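[Meeting: bench + compute handoff]

Bench side (C.D.) handed over the final construct sequence. Compute side (W.E.) agreed to return the predicted structure before the next meeting so the bench team could plan truncations. Sequence as handed over:
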Amino acid sequence: MPPFVLRSLPLVDLVALWVALLFAAYFTGPAFEGVRFLRLLEWRISLQNLLLLLVWSGFWLLLSYLAQTRTKTTRRFVLPTVQIAVMTGIGVLVLAASSQLFAIALITPQYIVAFALLYFVASHLLHWLYNRVLRFLDPEQHYLNHTVLLGATPLAAEITSSLRANAHFRLLGYFGTPTTETDGLNLVPCLGQLHDFAYWMHESVVDQVVVTLPLATLDPAVRDALSAAEAEGIEVLFPVPLLAPYLPLPEPLAPRTHLIRWSVGSGAVPLLSFDSGPQMGRALLVKRLLDVTAAALGILILSPLFLLIALAIRVTMGSPVFFVQPRLGYHRRIFLLYKFRTMIPNADALRETLRAHNDRDGAAFKMRNDPRITPLGRWLRKLNLDELPQLFNVLRGDMSLVGPRPLPLDDYARMDRITYLRRVSVLPGITCTWQIAPNRASIPFDEWMRMDLAYIDDWSLHTDLLLLVKTVWVTLRGKGDQ
């Protein structure tokens, strides 16, 4: 999760504080008996109490920030119950001291008890809600981070204890040598020896690889596999002490690295991350918010069109109305892509038969005059209307509005360049640069892949918005299937 999100957590605690103070006054203040809650918001507050509230709010933000930075837990979105209880106790002490020092009549023993109960409950609820919203909006938190360790070392055991306690990570296991037996790894599956890693990585869903062995001891095949992982957009992490002999980094590598820390016991392991995918931050969180909002509004506004298209398919082509196919998504995760059906029912079975007539070079299969497409289907494709059900994929978090198109699984199996797999280091999209290119049918497959990789490298919100506008223009001109 981006650091700016973690820095915003104290604001959640501040809201919980204000809620507890206000409702405690409403429930216990004798002056408010018989007064509706909304009328309470109209009461005036003295300058002294206003200044006291502002000072207390600043103190509470600082207290919450310290709690976040010093927490020993790896549950980053929900403060541990013990820490919330501690903050509640501090709040009680501050209220009691304020009552004595400033003679505030409102702060009675009943008020303090009500505040304690309300803050404890409100803090838990608000942090839970904050956690759920971020999980829904953040592409990284939509999935568990699949992590694998290279090496069965004491450092690997320390990192294992940290990852197993983190609800956002799924530790798949480790690769070690036959002679390594390290305490702390007995609860983690051994996935094989170091020389097995390269093959295993290409057949599995992996988000992160953590290397816990000195680079000099790595087999050349493993080093090649790590280079392939970085080329595919899989994050490769090295503990900083292991990289000390190689610092400073060469110029081509330095811009693509950043330092992170994972808590281990009372300390932290600094790790240097090599990541060729886009860095998470405010813009990508805004992108996800845009995806969710636009998809929800699109489904709502276009629902009559959905029904008309479904009825037309049902009448002219029969069932099924939707075409559902497994596609390769974020970091090789397989998801089901939805489209309105535009082909005859046994279209997939005929695909291999027609491959000899493929109009495209490379792994993708495209035919200019595909005999499997029905007359209604050809019209739907021309206006891009067959893609509308993918708004549900966007809403689920399987796809984005803009991103490299998700290809069928057998197309990926036919790719002859490993670097093309970096397409799956981001969420696939409904449209991208290739979809709005003039005469896209004549663009070679390799050029198509390079366009997708260039989109990833140069990604920005401005680029996404521009591509969406151009997609609408291409659709209105009826150039969707050309």
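W.E. noted at the follow-up: The longest helix spans residues 109-137. C.D. will use this when planning the next construct.
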